[in-house]
Amino acid sequence: MSDIKKFMYINRRAPYGTVYAWESLEVVLIGAAFDQLVSLAFIDDGIYQIMKGQDTSQLGIKNFSPTYGALGDYGITNIYVEKESLEERGLTLDDLIPLKYEDENDNYAEKDSIKVVTASELAKILEEQEVLLDF
């Protein structure tokens, strides 16, 4: 029996104003470093965490959004974005940071990590996880 568990980190909150988004990103990277099967879901205002063009200069805090670009290097290749959350905010996949990984099983071809799924599809994916962490 394998000790590797399937972890899903659910990101629901905007990237700034609370510590939820930053702490989620930290534990995601730690979990992946310890060889857990890590996936992320972005729903509700969590969509804004991976939006292009974030500028925090007026907030006086560090913009941590470029760190999401490292997820593929940590083996995190399953990033789910809820379609309804995108649509409710007037956003499309093109508004999001292009998150990629190199598929070693396909001659290191660069592939998209983000999968836009409906709420019902996401519910089925969540049922398959062993550990759910909601941020």
List descriptors:
alpha/beta; two-stranded antiparallel ribbon; Hypothetical Protein Ychn, Chain: A; 135 residues; 3 helices; five-stranded parallel sheet
Written account of the structure:
- This protein has a 5-stranded parallel sheet. Strands 4-5 form a two-stranded antiparallel ribbon.
- The model has no long low-confidence stretch (mean pLDDT 93).
- The longest helix has 14 residues, at 20-33.
- The protein has a single domain (6-134), classed as 3-Layer(aba) Sandwich (Hypothetical Protein Ychn, Chain: A).
- The chain contains 3 helices and 7 strands, in the order E-H-E-E-H-E-E-E-H-E.
- It has helices at 20-33, 83-88, 119-127; strands at 6-11, 37-42, 78-82, 100-103, 109-112, 114-117, 131-134.
- The chain is α/β, with parallel strands linked by helices.
Summarize the structure.
With 135 residues, this protein is an alpha/beta fold.
Structural class: alpha/beta
- How large is the radius of gyration? 15 Å
CATH topology assignment = Hypothetical Protein Ychn, Chain: A
Tell me roughly what share of residues is in helical segments.
10-25%
Topology diagram in text:
Elements: E1 6-11, H1 20-33, E2 37-42, E3 78-82, H2 83-88, E4 100-103, E5 109-112, E6 114-117, H3 119-127, E7 131-134
Parallel strand pairs: 1-2, 1-7, 2-3, 3-6
Antiparallel strand pairs: 4-5
